Amino acid sequence: MEQALGIKIKTLSKSFGSKTVIKDLSVEITPGSFVTLLGPSGCGKSTLLRLIAGLDNPTVGELALSPSGKKKFGFVFQEANLLPWKTVKENVSLPFELDEDLKSISKPARDEKVFEALRKVKLEGSENLFPHELSGGMKMRVSIARALVSNPRLLLMDEPFAALDENTRFEMQDQLLQLWETEKMTVVFVTHSLYEASYLSQRVIMLKAPGAIISSDMNLALPPKRNLELRTSEAFNSVLKELTERFRS
Ligand SMILES: Nc1ncnc2c1ncn2[C@@H]1O[C@H](COP(=O)(O)OP(=O)(O)OP(=O)(O)O)[C@@H](O)[C@H]1O
Question: Start and end of every ABC transporter domain (predicted)?
Fold first, then answer.
């Protein structure tokens, strides 16, 4: 398995016209960690994810992924963004058509990777369904499978579970943690939920506007194994309390 990607950001700023959304941001993210970005609407979380993914460029400053070379990452958005006229299997296969680095992979190897990704998100047997035949949770799992198909070493997730009901969200959180453990990839996750941040993350970085200034950077004192028992434990409650206090201060 290839190494997980680390991120080094140094004095980075991003402006859109005269508006500076990110100002002088410096932060490092350790390979293989699960880091959540929290902050009020409009503080620059999605902009930062897009910069990390190379979908946009910083105005000034440095952003480096290590090891450098192949930038293997997956991106999952709040909406599953599935093509309605394509089956589950075809939707998960899309990166092979769109990503230059993956175009050379043979058809049998592609099929195997798609099957493997669907297995990872527990969607075996749903290959030939169309998006309208799927629940919200299943659509999100297809979206995650599509991100996993290229074996990302960094997974960027922008409020992926925000539109799901509470039960499905809990289920998806546990599945994601399982994936994080088995895939040994770095995850940078954006959410508005303090509860979700506490449950999923090893580290929570809070950003505030203007300028996406880091207002808090906290390593969570929780065991790596998260489960139902932990959700209702005192240790979890005290982490959630601390995060809430930091968020409100
Ligand atoms: N391409 C763009 N052109 C102009 N302004 C932009 C662009 N992208 C983002 N912005 C502005 O940057 C600011 C930060 O947006 P961003 O989407 O990063 O915030 P966010 O923290 O992710 O918000 P939310 O939690 O609501 O998703 C907003 O004021 C937004 O209008």
Answer: 7-234
